[in-house]
Amino acid sequence: MSNDNLHIAVIGSGGSAMAAALKSAERGARVTLIERGTLGGTCVNIGCVPSKIMIRAAHVAHLRRTSPFDEGIGAVEPSIDRPRLLSQQQARVDELRLAKYEGILEDNPAITVLQGEARFTDSNTLTVTGADGTESEVCFDKAFIGTGARPAIPPVPGLSDTPYWTSTTALASDTIPDRLTVIGASVVAVELAQAFARLGSEVTILARSRLFSREDPAVGEAIETAFQAEGIKVLNNTQASQISYTNEEFVLATNAGELRADRLLVAVGRTPNTDRLNLEAIGVEAARGAILVDNGMRTTVPDIYAAGDCTDQPQFVYVAAAGGSRAAVNMTGGDARLDLSAMPEVVFTDPQIATVGLSEADAEVRGFVTDSRTLTLDNVPRALVNFDTGGFIKLVAERESGRLLGVQSVAGEAGELIQTAVMALRARMTVNEIADELFPYLTMVEGLKLCAQTFTKDVKQLSCCAG
């Protein structure tokens, strides 16, 4: 079959689905895109975009209240108008959704948008139920599933009877609570915890074990230190056993004692949106709801592909989009694979967390004999002139060859420096080669060079920008 006659059904309209639809159309296929809710998916509507706007606003509020330069620049307590901040946030969300999703789909004659909820009737047919209950059939040659995920809710007794927040409702709130308790200790939980604290909430975090328990222990320790300095309370090894809501107050029974709060944010992970697709009936295999895919985004059923947060892939929008575009290539007769061996991860706390490749523990589990170095930021000129030296850069290398295996960083601009580490990993560079590269002076990314130099010398004995 030529691609001119190929009909591809795309379920969803977020990062993976849009990439799959656009690439499929580009390669000559006819596409029917099915969306049950708002076009654009999680990232632009209720995830990355609104959260980063709120985090940035909170960062500005924090700097007005306190900075390393308060002796020379007068600090003031900022006045927070959350309704106006929310209005600004939503206006930018609407603008980006129109520019990057709605407008693009309207202008593409090869893509038909169908509003409704899809479920598989068989491996070549979808039934789509509209908002008014009417049903229609979509027959396809190949299908792509990009239905994303939703906040996971833990089975804590009493929780379901309370007006708890998820990340979605927290980001849409027009008020800043006086007291906020956060259940969760990973990306969404800590990002929003710090944002609300900087906008005026008294914040307590309940971590089942510790902050970022899957990362190098130094990562969680550095963030906890930064949070303590801002008055954010972190309760490690703490879980709620009962939650109630009376007189507009949350009461949590925990192993650390009773906690009370005006609002409760539950951010313990995300659940794939696959439960209403009828996947079992056509044989698409999943694990805990996450669709199993290979590196070509193929499911266990021929001609059915998937990518993004509804699969067993890492939950990042850039991974979703990359998976969607590769699925489209494969659905239209090509051969594309998604290589996640050098996948950067960034957490937008302050300081930021950024990692790529293997941690020391992960590398040793995989059989590598490692050598690693950790450079504290008081050795990085950019951090010194910023008067902001909390954090570190860590390089993990293979001992015998010196080849870079991974990088972990906690720094003010860690998210900006990590892509250089990605390119070094892709190029299979050694730490000696990184140490010998030219890096611009007074940048945070120069810290990678300095850390690489510590494998062979004491950087404290070098002049400012010694090569």
Written account of the structure:
The chain is an alpha/beta fold and 467 residues long. The chain is 31% helix and 25% strand. The chain has 14 helices and 24 strands. Strand 12 (240-246) and strand 13 (249-254) form a beta hairpin. Strands 3-2-1-7-19 form a five-stranded parallel sheet, covered by helices on one side. The protein has a five-stranded antiparallel sheet with strand order 20-21-24-23-22, with helices on both faces. It has a four-stranded parallel sheet with strand order 11-10-9-15, with helices on one face. It has helices at 15-26, 41-46, 48-65, 82-106, 167-171, 187-198, 217-229, 279-282, 317-331, 360-365, 381-385, 414-426, 431-435, 446-453; strands at residues 7-11, 30-35, 111-115, 117-122, 125-129, 135-139, 142-145, 149-151, 179-183, 202-206, 233-235, 240-246, 249-254, 257-261, 263-266, 270-272, 286-287, 290-291, 304-306, 345-347, 352-357, 370-376, 392-398, 404-411.
Q: What is the topology?
A:
Blueprint: E1 7-11, H1 15-26, E2 30-35, H2 41-46, H3 48-65, H4 82-106, E3 111-115, E4 117-122, E5 125-129, E6 135-139, E7 142-145, E8 149-151, H5 167-171, E9 179-183, H6 187-198, E10 202-206, H7 217-229, E11 233-235, E12 240-246, E13 249-254, E14 257-261, E15 263-266, E16 270-272, H8 279-282, E17 286-287, E18 290-291, E19 304-306, H9 317-331, E20 345-347, E21 352-357, H10 360-365, E22 370-376, H11 381-385, E23 392-398, E24 404-411, H12 414-426, H13 431-435, H14 446-453
Parallel strand pairs: 1-2, 1-7, 2-3, 7-19, 9-10, 9-15, 10-11
Antiparallel strand pairs: 4-5, 5-6, 8-16, 12-13, 13-14, 17-18, 20-21, 21-24, 22-23, 23-24
